[in-house]
DNA sequence: CTCTTTTGTCGTCACTTTGACGATAAGGGT
DNA sequence: ACCCTTATCGTCAAAGTGACGACAAAAGAG
């Protein structure tokens, strides 16, 4: 029995936290189908290219991010017949978490690429093309879940960060305010989550805060609790 | 830009608990490549067929299970170039959890299909063909994780079960003994996990045990703790 | 029919974690 | 100096966990 060939694409849910809110990178499609509409970045996997390599390539093309240090993980694969008018296309979705870049988005491929508040896109299923709304929902939910039991929130931060900044990540992703004192206790007492760097900063105003960097932990036990 | 066509397959990690151990369904391949070797069940997705539909079809073909009530979830997608000698094949892996069937496996497709202890297959990366060892590892880990925070263990049970039987599922999947008294407390006090059916059974020997069925809960909070 | 074995179920207790919140520390701005 | 802001520590009651004692209710042995 032989197989029916299909197109295989890698689509990306690229998230960051800017201005205290969760944002997603969208591109305006320059070609058909759905030309002119907003969509998640993505593209076809090349013949000799690994799936994750394709995702990293797209990520680099859309954001200019040197992708090695960027957290990238597979979310799910979407292959409903008819989801792409070009034919049978199966799309492997990846989730990327990036820090708030000083560098603006400089896409080579995309006619235009923009950071957009995730909440707005989540609220309107027709704001983005194809079945990308579902992909975004799944990607954001994955991110929210992973913050609970993994130290992944640090992927949104610069190399050095304060506990408040980290808390800001959680609050933005979960959309919930957290108690600063309990959060501080929890984070600093969870082994290997963050390690103090020795310096302090006043960039957030108020009393100087200690700077930390991500620790060696790969998961958090016990997990943090969503508001 | 056009796409390079690829084969898309659905592979299945079908797990059950029999004789107090976690077992996985393997088939002996009747055709090349890897003819005669053991592998996970699976096959190519048909042109107009949804991915999950393909997985359910394969599940039905291999196990005879009417698939509607069977828990099936996507695990991940594997698409490394060279993973299949027939060409570029991308495989979407699904995890199925089935109860200990009185019905023996009756595959129409498979030359032979057998339940095999998961521990043995996990221990030897070359026991199964292709990259199926990795798929199995990921599938089993997914199952282990989901037992913690979802009521999914009931998917391994018959419609009605005792707390001990449910505990046996956890012990088999996690490979860890659990305290019967604490387990009983935890399960019965977690809202919506199990609901008493009113009857009792003595099929496990000893004092008659209450029978339960799965409750309406979709997740467990707080979660159960592994070992 | 009584005793023993086996499993089920309830309780107790010390310990940890959580969530709510008071209090103090240490900068900057005026 | 005083106030505002953020950081960080401490306290306390409530809830959850792990260890384990005790009793209940059946089957099987004698």
Overview of the structural elements:
The structure is a homodimer of 227-residue chains. Chain A has 227 residues and is of the alpha+beta class. Chain A has helices at residues 51-63, 118-123, 132-149, 163-174, 180-189; strands at residues 7-18, 21-28, 38-39, 42-44, 71-78, 89-97, 112-117, 194-201, 209-214. In chain A, the strands form two sheets. In chain A, strands 1, 2, 3, 4, 5, 6 and 7 form a seven-stranded mixed sheet that branches. In chain A, strands 8-9 form a two-stranded antiparallel sheet. In chain A, strand 8 and strand 9 form a beta hairpin. The radius of gyration of chain A is 19 Å and the shape is elongated. The mean pLDDT of chain A is 94. Chains A and B meet through strand 1, strand 5 and strand 6 of A and strand 1, strand 5 and strand 6 of B. The structure holds a DNA duplex (30 and 30 nucleotides).
